[in-house]
Amino acid sequence: MSCMYKITFSINLLFLSFCILSCGDDDKLTKNEVSKVNDSTASSTVIKTIVFFGNSLTAGYGLDPAQAFPALIQKKIDSLNLSYKVINAGVSGETSSGGNSRVDWILEQPVDVFVLELGANDGLRGIPITETKTNLQSIINKVKAKYPQAKIVIAGMQMPPNMGQQYTSDFRGIFGELARKNNSSLIPFILEGVGGEAGLNQGDGIHPTTEGHQLVAENVWQELQPLLQ
Q: What is the dihedral of CA 74, 75, 77, 83, to 10 degrees?
């Protein structure tokens, strides 16, 4: 009986030791899993996307892309530790019609803020106001359909007086009308303080210099910053 008791006690002790070790491993595994979850949560800050969709002004014609106003906006964002990245989707020479055809491809990526900077090339070519307005509205419709929660900012533009008083007036009114219709933010005139200023534009008198883009960035930032807070 004494021998059997010793054998039974040894078996029970071995089983108890195994259970203790097993429980320890399970507890350790649980802690590791929790740690992984916490690490993942800490590093999974959502980075939102701002798309600047425009023409040569957005693209930074004649300059290094880092000097164009979208890149300057990114610097402002980074300085405030805001979780946004800027996508420069500017194409030189782009019209509202070209943008309407191209925007579907741009919308393949996530969009949280969409800055629409198109229309200037339409105006310089004398394209009918109704056509420009229709194309810009179509672009806005596509953004809303794909990303209903996206915030839209419309960059206003103006034409020089040599385009004719009526055309100039009607063209200027496009952007405010679209902003009101779509409940969007409006940059009244993106080239405010820059357009027509020889010292702030390149030799063609149309595209801003580095200093000009800095002022453009300020014009954009006034309307954009409140949307990012």
A: 70
Range of the domain at 20: 1-44
Instruction: Choose, from 17, 56, 79, 169, the residue flagged as catalytic.
Output: 56
Whether 163 and 90 share a structural domain: yes
Amino acid at 77: I
- For residues 117 and 15, membership in a common domain is answered with no
| Choice among 5-9, 79-83, 100-104, 156-160 with the minimum mean pLDDT | 5-9
Contacts of 48 (CB under 8 A, 6+ apart): 83, 84, 85, 110, 112, 113
* Same structural domain, 30 and 109: no
Instruction: Measure the CA–CA gap between 153 and 178, rounded to whole angstroms.
Output: 10
* Distances, alpha carbon 85 to alpha carbons 47, 117, 152, in Å: 7, 18, 16
What's the whole-model pTM score?
A: 0.81
Active-site position among 112, 185, 207, 213: 207
Q: What is the mean pLDDT of the chain?
A: 86
First-residue to last-residue Cα distance in the chain: 80
Residue 55 shares a structural domain with residue 120: yes
User: Would you call 122 a catalytic residue per the annotation?
Assistant: no
27 catalytic, yes or no? Answer: no
Q: Do 22 and 86 belong together in one domain?
A: no
- Could you give the number of structural domains in the chain? 2
Task: Identify whether 213 is a catalytic site residue.
Answer: no
